């Protein structure tokens, strides 16, 4: 049995992950954690997730270390918000608990800090901006395609629901970094975010990144390769959060055999 703790237990992703874990024979939810001093503390995590009582009460993250120790959690799944996840990753790594992290919106410094702590504490970790199989194939397609279309103008457009806290999406940022690296361009020099005003003509090197927010869009990502007289669009659309949740379950099965001290991603989980 894989003993799993979930932070962000009452969130869109956290509650879906709790529901899915309850359907698996080889894993068990042992802790459900929410914001510090959460008003949800004491409420059963299954009741909150809509599956009835599962005997795991939500706790506030002020008691994270105690909760992880007393529950015997082996892996912590975090889908929260970047500034909170940075602290959770440090604290869980200090307790020797492995990690599956889907939170997005980390700055470069935060992402490096996460990698450093995983290395220092020599724990097993999977961190990915997108746990869907389709998006990870989309990433692979971008890696292969971009060097061939190296003189086309490249623009990235993402669209998400109106509750999303970070922009551009983590997936759009991963796509941008992949494309920039495939073209041997420095991401910090070529990213142009949402043009506005007298910005002048587009340079050949720049890569545009645009975020749309509205309603209940689960997550769309498009990369446009625009030449003279033609254009190619590579697009992924998630219709349901279940695609991310299914990837998290695969990552939970993988993480026990993952290489220690390194940030594994979904390409490691999927072997692609
Ligand atoms: N990698 C992937 O495949 C996916 C990543 N995400 C990312 O996951 C994150 C969460 O997304 P949603 O579930 O839609 O957000 P949400 O807002 O529905 O849920 C976040 C939950 O985290 C809780 N939280 C905040 N700080 C906390 C802390 N210190 N300790 C414990 N809980 C804390 C909040 O109270 C909330 O219940 C976002 O960064 C989003 O971009 C979302 C979907 C897929
Ligand atoms: O916040 C979301 O909802 C999503 N976040 C991830 C991201 O920022 O890329 C993944 C997915 O697109 C849904």
UniProtKB/TrEMBL annotation:
Pathway: Amino-acid biosynthesis; L-lysine biosynthesis via DAP pathway; (S)-tetrahydrodipicolinate from L-aspartate: step 4/4
GO molecular function: 4-hydroxy-tetrahydrodipicolinate reductase; NAD binding; NADP binding; oxidoreductase activity, acting on CH or CH2 groups, NAD or NADP as acceptor
Active site: 160, 164
Source superkingdom: Archaea
EC code(s) of this entry: 1.17.1.8
Stored Pfam families: DapB_C, DapB_N
UniProt entry keywords in alphabetical sequence: Amino-acid biosynthesis, Cytoplasm, Diaminopimelate biosynthesis, Lysine biosynthesis, NAD, NADP, Oxidoreductase
SUPFAM superfamilies tied to this protein: Glyceraldehyde-3-phosphate dehydrogenase-like, C-terminal domain (SSF55347), NAD(P)-binding Rossmann-fold domains (SSF51735)
Binding site for (S)-2,3,4,5-tetrahydrodipicolinate: 161, 170-171
Main location: cytoplasm
Annotated catalysed reactions: (S)-2,3,4,5-tetrahydrodipicolinate + NADP(+) + H2O = (2S,4S)-4-hydroxy-2,3,4,5-tetrahydrodipicolinate + NADPH + H(+); (S)-2,3,4,5-tetrahydrodipicolinate + NAD(+) + H2O = (2S,4S)-4-hydroxy-2,3,4,5-tetrahydrodipicolinate + NADH + H(+)
Residues that bind NAD(+): 8-13, 34, 102-104, 128-131
Every Dihydrodipicolinate reductase N-terminal domain range: 2-131
GO annotations of cellular component type: cytoplasm
CDD domains recorded: DHDPR_N
Protein's GO biological process: diaminopimelate biosynthetic process; lysine biosynthetic process via diaminopimelate
Localization annotation: Cytoplasm
Segments forming domain Dihydrodipicolinate reductase C-terminal: 134-270
Similarity section: Belongs to the DapB family.
Quaternary data: Homotetramer.
Record's function text: Catalyzes the conversion of 4-hydroxy-tetrahydrodipicolinate (HTPA) to tetrahydrodipicolinate.
Protein name as annotated: 4-hydroxy-tetrahydrodipicolinate reductase
Species, as recorded: Methanobrevibacter olleyae
Gene name linked to the record: dapB
């Amino acid at each position: 049995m894989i003993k799993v703790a979930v932070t962000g237990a009452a969130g869109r992703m956290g509650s879906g992950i709790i529901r899915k874990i309850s359907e698996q024979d080889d894993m068990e939810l042992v802790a459900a954690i929410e914001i510090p001093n959460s008003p949800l503390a004491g409420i059963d995590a299954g009741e909150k997730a809509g599956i009835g009582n599962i005997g795991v009460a939500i706790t506030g993250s002020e008691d994270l270390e105690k909760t992880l120790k007393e529950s015997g959690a082996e892996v912590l799944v975090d889908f929260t918000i970047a500034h909170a996840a940075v602290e959770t990753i440090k604290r869980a790594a200090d307790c020797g608990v492995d990690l599956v992290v889907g939170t997005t919106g980390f700055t470069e410094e935060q992402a490096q800090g996460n990698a450093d702590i995983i290395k220092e504490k020599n724990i097993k970790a999977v961190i990915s901006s997108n746990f869907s199989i389709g998006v990870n194939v989309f990433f692979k397609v971008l890696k292969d395609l971009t060097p061939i279309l190296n003189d086309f103008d490249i623009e990235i457009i993402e669209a998400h629901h109106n509750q999303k806290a970070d922009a551009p999406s983590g997936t759009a940022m991963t796509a941008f970094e992949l494309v920039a690296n495939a073209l041997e361009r420095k991401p910090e020099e070529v990213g142009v975010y949402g043009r506005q005003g007298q910005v002048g003509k587009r340079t050949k090197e720049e890569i545009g990144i645009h975020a749309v927010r509205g309603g209940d869009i689960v997550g769309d990502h498009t990369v446009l390769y625009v030449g003279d007289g033609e254009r190619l669009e590579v697009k992924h659309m998630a219709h349901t959060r279940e695609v991310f949740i299914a990837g998290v379950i695969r990552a939970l099965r993988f993480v026990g055999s993952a290489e220690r001290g390194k940030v594994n991603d979904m390409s490691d989980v999927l072997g692609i």
